[in-house]
Amino acid sequence: YKLGVGIFEVGSAYIRSTDLHSAARPMMIGLSRRVREAVHRAILSGEKAVCIDKIDSPRGLGTTSKIGRAASLNAGSVGKVLLAFQPDGVRDHLLATMDFPRLTEQTITTPEHMREVTDEIRRAGYCISLGEGDSDMACIAAPIFDHTGQMVAGISVGGPIHRFTDTESANFIREELLKVAHQISEIMGCREVPAFENAA
Predict the structure, then answer these.
(1) What is the model's pLDDT at position 62?
(2) What is the pLDDT of residues 31-85, one digit of tens each?
(3) Is the pLDDT of residue 10 over 90?
(4) CA distances from 81 to 76, 123, 142, 193 (A)
């Protein structure tokens, strides 16, 4: 018997995910302590954002998301980041096939609007969501890239919306989040964030 290519691919994927977890988790813990909010890491699975790691808020009051939970891409910052930084062909396919459930009055419900928003996320390098998945909650997310320039995960900070509408607090959270996202990407071998169309 010989090991097939499929076994090698599965093993390689496991090693990559393990490396990412080892790199990301200590930084997620530090980030959560500094901003005093919950921190999440999610990946794209099909047409959903799946939470694969979470650090609870030190305040004891934070988001209700759980590891393994799958969420729609149209509501919340990490889902939109996972969509925005896909290659153009993948993003176009997802926009044409994904669901757009309305969860609150702030939820994006059309592919046309989502395309505009993801273009802006590409330009900004991050996404902020205020009351899109839950009217009382907010989050800020950024992408993590690997050595090939491919986005491998999204990292987000989430908590009660009133703590994200204060400009000074929101700016501090965003700066700390982006710093950590860049540091994890560098550990994963990313030396330069890839350029995307419509990002200029």
Answers:
(1) 57
(2) 999 999 999 999 999 999 999 999 999 987 656 678 898 999 999 999 999 999 9
(3) no
(4) 9, 12, 6, 14
CB atoms within 10 A of CB 167: 8
d(CA 117, CA 134): 19
Tell me the torsion sign for CA atoms 181, 80, 55, 70.
negative
- Give CA torsion, residues 76, 82, 85, 87, to 10 deg: -130
* Residue 130 · residue 172 · CB < 8 Å: no
Q: Whole-angstrom Cα distance, residue 97 to residue 82?
A: 15
Between the two ends of the chain, the Cα-to-Cα distance in Å is: 52
The residue-averaged pLDDT of 107-125 equals 97
Q: What is the pTM of this model?
A: 0.86
Q: Tokens for 29?
A: 């813990």
